[in-house]
Task: inverse folding
């Protein structure tokens, strides 16, 4: 069962909502837990065993940590590392063993057997949630949960288990457990958010799919502007698909009165690569920051390195030297988290280099703006930064989507050869699976997305504004949005929906 | 001693008003690079050890919150 399916949207979800509304408050969390396991069971079948194992073991380890006395630091550390080793180890074996052994066979004269594991849906998400829970118990930020059911619901909540967002126990578990009543506001706000997510996914992301697939699958046949447009289209598709699915998830949770963390904050308004990652897949970025970057940065060797570097190299360069080891670890993990492939590793290292140089070149950018007489808050500088970030993001996504690192480099190189602006007008683009009508719908959908992001960037809360309008106008707008999804959505014969892009991660 | 903390903050990023600002982390006024520099400077200046457990927004959102954290760590 997929989120974007009639079975989920018109049968499963309404039934769960109805049963939830009819249940007494104290039993509602149990209903959400049962629904989550039914959903995950239908999706993953026997692979549900991994989720069960993760839940039971993390629960037990949390209780072990609770039982440790204040002075038993070493015992607590051993429990933490045991849990991290088992859970990350399991993920590593399932996700990376084939990649590791294939790479080893390619480099050395070996013929090691390469295993083929089926990856349980959402394992990368619930594993990170499990590890964050354990780490938070270890650091004393939360107590290990006595209730196995509450912890199970935190790890398995059905709207979020496949594509995130990656939730923290302290923020989410009690929200899920509270069993809040269904309210008119929650249902209308949640439904609006869901329709907005479906609009982005069905109207923009799924409609672009044929075009993107054609260029990236048969990349050897294309060059110049076509490849550049393919990479830009994929960037747009990924944003519309992933943020659309997150809107669907957050909207679904909102129906039940549960607030989940936001995962996107208008990423294309970013000025730097590091700002981009504070606005794109926010919960993954904060996970890496809190559980890898800070702990590694505050180890004694790294702090000593920083002090020494600041003394000898000055403040800015010394500070950069201190963050190099933890930052490298974060971006290697980020790349590999997205997939077991050299192109994903390259993707991570690409952002590592950009962020390091971005930090080092900050004073130079300041001087450049002074020399040119441009304010760094002014329009011209802003346009320059937007164009720069668009180029950076589209290039990164080209490597991310390419069928291997070699294909990525070949495609990137081909952008600079065979450059022919005539492809925009000679019908070439219309031979890539989409007709003029499709391009018109995508352009209109993208403009709507841009307008909404622009308003959000200016602090306008559209849903609150909509709630303040009179009833006929409000319902007309909502109905128009539903009709837009039904009429302009890409589904049925002739369209292949995008696989939930982040489900495989 | 609070002046010492304000001086460290000014050195790291002089653009913020540390006497009134209450959302240095939540509003992105101090990024993770700046936080690490701040941690090193605070450890050197106040003779404390700041562990990852302390690196939560509540402890770094304002100069007052940092001062409270330092007081706790010095005990």
Result:
């Amino acid at each position: 069962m997929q989120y974007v399916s009639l079975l989920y949207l018109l049968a499963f979800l309404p039934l769960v909502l109805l049963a939830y509304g009819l249940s007494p408050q104290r039993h509602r969390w149990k209903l959400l837990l049962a629904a989550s396991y039914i959903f995950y069971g239908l999706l993953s079948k026997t692979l549900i065993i991994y989720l069960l194992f993760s839940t039971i073991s993390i629960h037990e380890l949390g209780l072990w940590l609770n039982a440790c006395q204040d002075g038993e630091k070493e015992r607590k550390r051993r429990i933490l590392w045991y849990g991290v080793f088992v859970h990350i180890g399991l993920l590593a074996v399932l996700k990376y063993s084939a990649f590791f052994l294939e790479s080893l066979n390619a480099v050395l004269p070996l013929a090691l057997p390469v295993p083929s594991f089926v990856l349980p849906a959402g394992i990368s998400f619930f594993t990170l949630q499990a590890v964050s829970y354990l780490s938070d118990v270890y650091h004393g930020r939360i107590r290990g949960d006595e209730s196995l059911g509450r912890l199970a619901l935190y790890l398995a909540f059905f709207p979020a288990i496949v594509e995130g967002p990656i939730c923290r126990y302290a923020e989410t578990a009690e929200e899920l457990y509270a069993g809040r009543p269904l309210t008119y506001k929650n249902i209308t706000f949640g439904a609006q958010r869901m329709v907005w997510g479906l609009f982005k996914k069905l109207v923009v992301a799924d409609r672009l799919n044929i075009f993107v697939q054609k260029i990236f699958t048969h990349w050897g046949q294309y060059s110049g502007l076509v490849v550049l447009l393919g990479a830009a289209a994929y960037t747009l598709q990924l944003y519309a698909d992933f943020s659309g699915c997150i809107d669907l998830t957050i909207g679904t949770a909102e129906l039940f009165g549960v607030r989940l963390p936001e995962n996107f904050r208008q990423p294309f308004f970013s000025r730097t690569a590091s700002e981009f990652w504070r606005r794109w897949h926010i919960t993954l970025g904060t996970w890496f920051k809190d559980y890898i970057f800070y702990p590694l940065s505050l180890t004694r060797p790294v702090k000593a390195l920083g002090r020494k570097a600041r003394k000898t190299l000055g403040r800015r360069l010394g500070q950069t030297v201190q963050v190099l080891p933890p930052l490298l670890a974060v971006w290697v993990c980020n790349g590999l988290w997205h997939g077991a492939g050299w192109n994903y590793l390259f993707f991570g290292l690409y952002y590592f280099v950009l962020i390091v140089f971005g930090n080092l070149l900050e004073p130079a950018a300041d001087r450049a703006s002074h020399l040119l007489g441009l304010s760094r808050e002014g329009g011209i500088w802003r346009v320059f930064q937007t164009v720069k970030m668009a180029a950076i993001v589209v290039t990164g996504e080209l490597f991310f989507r390419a069928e291997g690192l070699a294909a990525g480099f070949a495609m990137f190189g081909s952008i600079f050869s065979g450059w022919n602006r005539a492809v925009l007008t000679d019908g070439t683009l219309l031979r890539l699976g989409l007709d003029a009508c499709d391009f018109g719908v995508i352009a209109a959908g993208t403009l709507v997305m841009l307008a909404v992001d622009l308003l959000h960037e200016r602090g306008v809360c559209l849903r609150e504004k909509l709630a303040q309008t009179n009833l006929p106008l409000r319902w007309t707008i909502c109905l128009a949005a539903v009709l837009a999804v039904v009429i302009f959505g890409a589904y049925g014969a002739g369209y292949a929906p995008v696989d939930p892009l982040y489900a495989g991660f | 001693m609070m002046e010492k903390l304000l001086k460290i903050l000014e050195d790291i990023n002089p653009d913020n008003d540390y006497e009134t600002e209450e959302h240095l982390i939540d509003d992105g006024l101090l990024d993770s690079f700046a936080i690490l520099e701040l941690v090193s400077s605070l450890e050197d200046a106040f003779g404390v050890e700041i562990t990852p457990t302390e690196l939560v927004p509540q402890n770094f959102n304002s100069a007052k919150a940092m001062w409270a954290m330092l007081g706790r760590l010095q005990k």
Q: What stands out?
A: The first helix of chain A runs from residue 6 to 22.
